[in-house]
Write a structure and sequence with these properties.
By secondary structure, the protein is of the alpha/beta class. It has 2 domains: 15-185, Alpha/beta knot (3-Layer(aba) Sandwich); 195-369, Nucleotidyltransferase, domain 5, CATH 3.30.420.10. Helices cover 35% and strands 15% of the residues. It contains 13 helices and 11 strands. The protein has helices at residues 47-54, 105-114, 116-120, 147-158, 170-185, 195-207, 259-265, 269-273, 278-288, 300-309, 319-327, 334-341, 354-369; strands spanning 31-36, 59-62, 77-80, 87-88, 97-102, 123-125, 212-221, 231-239, 246-250, 294-297, 317-318. The strands form 2 sheets. A 6-stranded parallel β-sheet has the order 2-1-5-3-6-4. Strands 9-8-7-10-11 form a 5-stranded mixed β-sheet, sandwiched between helices. The radius of gyration is 23 Å and the shape is globular.
């Protein structure tokens, strides 16, 4: 490794971009425990690392298999998470200790879902008035903050008179500014796109529009199984955009998700509990399916799992990379794409959040099918 790319052992940034010299050490009255998703641990722009450098006494626990044992926490500890019943900081008794989830927004939701002890803690939330300044990583919406930003904002709300809190983000600001400056100084190389593969799939969408079936599946893990195994298909939903025909069947699963997760899926607990077995789902799909169906999904994972469980080929036209190849890698979420492109995306008449997601994916598929080859 060249000297320029050698990483600082503390902040893990390349030596020319080291931010340790501007980090100010701060002591807060409220303790902080970070629960980190393993996918975030080695990310070059992980801000929990900066938080440990800047704030004294931070404890960090990595959830290597998605879960982590509850650490010793004082009475009055709370988790910083926008749960439906969360208390806004400043509107109730302040917590004595903060548990902060470190990861992307989907990773943080996974930590919340998979660790019951975290959900058992009282939840507190921020009401930020300014968007994140994390300009080198895309946040899912304007109110989302990086780990260090969220922690700093929470501490300012709990103990505004603590000296130095206004300097807690000095290292973070230096990281962002340094990375942007480095990127601006590089020679930009055109993004290499495999045009032949992209054009073939776009042409296929247009040529076989009558065969397109947009698929969405809700899945749920089975506790105690190895990662990547023991996944049940809870709901399979689909729509044929050319005709408007829909499919929506719930299947019984070995472990019914808890009320929080079902609420996130927008599914009714009674219907889920009363669902028939997977064989009934397979039989219903056999009546809906056609031999020439072209399966399409915004995100492949759930759709491929469901098709594989049905004994069908797991070939799924993946809309996300098609759109990213067309518009650039930072395309955003499907609802953002629908709004940006001005697409008509009515909710599909199926249960749960699948209705909105199938509507977005169908609109994006129709948009891509109309792209000239």
């Amino acid at each position: 490794m060249s000297e320029d790319r050698e990483a600082c052992i503390d902040c893990r940034r390349p030596r020319p971009l080291c931010v340790c010299g501007v980090v100010s050490r701060v002591r807060s009255r409220v303790g902080v425990t970070v629960v980190q998703h393993p996918g975030e641990r080695d990310h070059p722009f992980n801000t929990a690392r900066l938080l440990r450098l800047a704030l004294e006494g931070v404890a960090l626990h990595t959830a290597w298999d998605g879960t982590v044992e509850r650490p010793e926490l004082p009475e009055g500890a709370a988790v910083l998470y926008p749960a439906p019943d969360a208390t806004l900081l400043g509107e109730g008794p302040p917590p004595s200790h903060l548990v902060v989830l470190d990861g992307t927004w989907p990773q943080a939701k996974a930590l919340w879902r998979e660790n019951a002890w975290i959900r058992d803690l009282p939840a507190v939330a921020l009401a930020p008035t300014e968007p994140s300044t994390y300009r080198i990583r895309r946040e899912p919406s304007a109110h989302c903050l990086s780990t260090i930003e969220a922690t700093a904002a929470a501490l300012r709300a709990i103990e505004p008179d603590t000296p130095g809190l206004d300097r807690l983000l000095d290292g973070f600001d230096a990281l962002v500014d340094g990375q942007i400056a480095e990127l601006a100084g590089r020679e930009r190389q055109p993004r290499r796109v495999r045009r032949s593969a992209r054009e073939t799939l776009l042409e296929k969408l247009g040529r076989r529009w009558e065969d397109v079936v947009v698929v969405y599946a809700e899945t749920t893990p089975v506790r105690g199984c190895a990662r990547g195994r023991g996944i049940d298909v809870l709901q399979l939903a689909a729509v044929r955009p050319a005709t408007g025909a829909t499919f929506d069947v719930l299947a019984s699963v070995r472990e019914v998700p808890d009320a929080h997760l079902l609420g996130h899926m927008e599914l009714d607990a009674t219907e889920v509990s009363d669902a028939a077995g997977f064989d009934a789902l397979a039989s219903a799909w056999a009546s809906f399916a056609r031999p020439d169906d072209l399966h399409v999904a915004w995100s492949q994972a759930g759709a491929r799992l469901a098709l594989g469980r049905l004994g069908l080929p797991e070939d799924v036209v993946h809309l996300k990379p098609l759109y990213c190849n067309l518009r650039g890698p930072r395309a955003g979420r499907p609802d953002e794409i629908v709004e940006r492109e001005g697409l008509d995306a009515p909710r599909v008449d199926v249960r749960g959040r699948a209705g909105a997601r199938l509507g977005w994916a169908s609109a994006i598929a129709a948009f891509l099918a109309d792209v000239p080859g």
